[in-house]
Amino acid sequence: MVDLKGQYNDIKDVVNPSIHEVIETTAFINGPKVHEFQKNLEEYLGVKHVIPCANGTDALQIAMMGLGLKPGDEVITADFTFAATVEVIALLQLTPVLVDVNPDDFNINIEAIKKAITPKTKAIVPVHLFGQCADMEAIMNIAEEHNLFVIEDNAQAIGATYTYKNGKKVKVGTIGDVGATSFFPSKNLGCYGDGGAIFTNNDDLAHTIRGIVNHGMYERYHHDVVGVNSRLDSIQAAVLNAKLPHLDRYNERRNLAATKYDKALKNIDGIITPFRSGEADNHVFHQYTLQIKGIDRDALVKHLNENDIPCGVYYPIPLHRQKAYLDERYNEADFEVTNQLVKEVISLPMHTELDDEQIEHITSTIINFING
Ligand SMILES: *Cc1c(COP(=O)(O)O)cnc(C)c1O
């Protein structure tokens, strides 16, 4: 699904000495590379504060802790996402409220959010799924009207731009009260292990979060709040410093590959190519996900695998039907879109090293399967 080796070969001359420097200086934790990466990412995103941490799941959890959410507070998020989003809500003893998504861009549905709001609702967590930014202007309006926090799960969309109706552009993840991202190796900006970060423009929140990631310490050995231990290590920061200058180019390459897939597949019966909302840079194609209608998905997966083409089904089960997140207040009729998507989605290989020959092989294999 991804070609991390090809991408590494391209930046090896920068990455290797930088990793080596960390080892030579033995500044493995909180070294200068971490601070450098924090500054670089703040500048890239145009955000006041970046707080690096250990992974994307921690980033989400710490963001929620920083906002002071309390057990019983309701947090609305999408039913169609990776489990980490809802997991941290439940872990903090907040109440997850899963809602349906849009049939076109697969992101959280605005009407469904409105319907789910109760006096206990405290936050909304939009996920910019597969690299496509959610409808942030509408979400921010709802949040303002009901006095809710917005936590952006930006694990799949780092580098994506959001274009406001008035034309103003900002980086995704910097619009809500706080954003959380992951540097898992296969993400659009991946390190060589685990990593994550939290972003915010709020000075007080940034201060609170900097303490939380470090055992609740604001002054050495004074533990003012219950915190966690969540750090980005210096070797990962060295990798990320080497890769960040390439992120826009990486995302452009993903976009180009997506356009080539679109061209080959858009007029094929039974295939719906990914919807792009807004401008070209509003989608960074973490995944290239087709919706297939009237085609046997299991047989297609098998056929692709037999032709040495990896593919993935993200996600095969809606979160509201996962054992850990069952809730008697859910009504199947409210999850019509997610229930359909889990049966119809299939994601094709997507990475920065895809070439025309590979795309041609993948798309012709799909078309041959459909034409039987
Ligand atoms: C990857 C991912 C996460 C979690 O990131 P980790 O670094 O693996 O903890 C959270 N949310 C979404 C939508 C993701 O894709």
Automatic annotation (TrEMBL):
Decide whether keyword Transferase is in the record. Answer: yes
Q: Does the keyword Methyltransferase apply?
A: no
Q: Which Gene3D superfamilies match?
A: Aspartate Aminotransferase, domain 1, Type I PLP-dependent aspartate aminotransferase-like (Major domain)
This protein's UniProt keywords: Aminotransferase, Pyridoxal phosphate, Transferase
Please name the Pfam families in this protein's record: DegT_DnrJ_EryC1 (PF01041)
GO MF annotations, alphabetized? transaminase activity
Task: Tell me the protein family, please.
Answer: Belongs to the DegT/DnrJ/EryC1 family.
Q: Which PANTHER family match?
A: 3-OXO-GLUCOSE-6-PHOSPHATE:GLUTAMATE AMINOTRANSFERASE, TRANSAMINASE
Report the protein name in the record: DegT/DnrJ/EryC1/StrS family aminotransferase
